Amino acid sequence: MDGQTAAGLGQTPGPSGGHEDSQEAIACDCHWPESERANLYAVEGCESRHGQDAGTYDLSAENGGILQINRPTWEGYFLETCGWDWAQIVTDDTTNYRAACLIWERNGWADWSCRP
């Protein structure tokens, strides 16, 4: 993972670069535990070749973003719960990591076709 991508794993920056304090931000805050980071890197590599696959950021695809989040399953949930639209989930790596972390907290790695 490059430094920019890894930076999104431990902090939850707000739109202005500071930390969000809203109820929504608290509910959607998630930090990958250090013990899962090697697994995260492996899943990211398998799912999107670390963002290098041509379809990684395709907004019309069924799965999107660096961790290939499933649109039919999660789009509505994240829009309602966190206020993240599909374009944000797919094209913003930090949001994609946050969404994936919330999915992982609920289901472990079960939602990904690539599992550690």
Question: What would your notes on this structure say?
Answer:
With about 120 residues, this protein is mainly alpha-helical. The chain has one domain. The protein has a two-stranded antiparallel sheet with strand order 1-2. Strand 1 and strand 2 form a beta hairpin.
Brief summary of the model shown:
47% of the residues lie in helices and 3% in strands.
Key terms:
two-stranded antiparallel sheet, 116 residues, mainly alpha, 47% helix, disordered N terminus, globular, 6 helices, 3% strand
Mean pLDDT: 84
CA-atom Rg in angstroms: 13 Å
Query: In one word, what is the shape?
Result: globular
**Poorly predicted sequence stretches spanning 5 or more consecutive residues:** 1-8, 10-21
The strands making up the biggest β-sheet line up spatially as 1-2
